[in-house]
Predict the 3D structure of the following.
Amino acid sequence: MKGLILGGGKGTRLRPLTLNTPKPIVPVANRPFLLYQIDLMKTAGLGEIILSLSYLPRKIEDLLKDGADFDVRVHYAVEGEPLGTAGAFKNAEEWIDEPAVVFNGDVLTSLDLPAVIAAHQHTGAVATIVLTPVDDPSAYGLVEFDDAGRVTRFLEKPDMDTVTTNNINAGTYVLDPRVFEYIPGDRPFSFERELFPALLEAGLPVYAYTSDCYWIDIGTPEHYLEAHMDILAGRFRSPSIPPTALETGAENGASIDERSLIAPDVSIGRGARIASSVIGPNCRIREGARVVDSVVWPGVTIEENASVTGAIVGRSCSVGRSAVLKSGTVLGGMSSITDFSSV
Ligand code: GDD
Ligand code: MG
């Protein structure tokens, strides 16, 4: 069985972080995000993965190349213009002649993928859709199903007053190649708004697989930060994430709590304090600076006595002396915050 990762969206809700870094490879706990999805596909023995790309594809290709460094074989299906989620799947038809696993390229989850595949085989569905419960379903695709688990309705991003369930489309599917017949090849086409309703209309068996495993869509700054806080608190675990802080260049008197993740080649000045944060490679945290509940991308300098709380600091930013970044701040790459500014 092959896997396909949908990674062609522009990541607009994650701007400015995605202006130069496509969403599939934004760093999560200091690793390109896509690697967590590849890890998950490997748990089900999927060794051949198609990356469906459109926005900044070269950056992803340069990182993953043919996949050999990550023990998988990677193929690239690149769209000139975005074809929509189902159109993107159709664009990879040449590689898919048996059921395939499809992931939205922005979901971090500890789903039991082998169990999903087994369920798909058991029901003989044309499509199995993984569902997860969330508190506010209106930003997602709503899925209703009957007692036998057969999907009866798919409603993408409904108005709040038409929300009927809190089970949403978790963005993981197993799809039979029979669905290609329902995707026109000549125009953009959506799984959520077009294909799934069409399969239901045609009376084809579409099944739900409900999971209450860890799940988050990292596609907004709030959720991206939340995913990091979950990782640091142990709510999402991965053998690829180092278990405790790796203090490389901390000077005497610096304080780093146990849950923080500090990449190699980071220098931390005297009296600096880091708590519940992720610091990327080649950062410099100067004397007396504080970084709390934050994610700091590679190459950032945080000057003396600056304070960063609940913020996301993009690549190679510089935060001046005694500057204050308050909760909710998101700095795009190369931003420079002058001394004593408050953001
Ligand atoms: N190749 C390609 N081409 N990929 C695309 C395209 C396209 O035209 N459009 C979107 N994608 C990719 C995005 O890169 C992303 O990884 C995935 O498809 C989903 O797109 P999002 O833009 O993140 O959608 P969403 O989060 O608003 O909603 C989707 O995900 C929810 C779960 O997080 C829907 O599938 C919802 O039904 C679902 O509940
Ligand atoms: Mg999304």
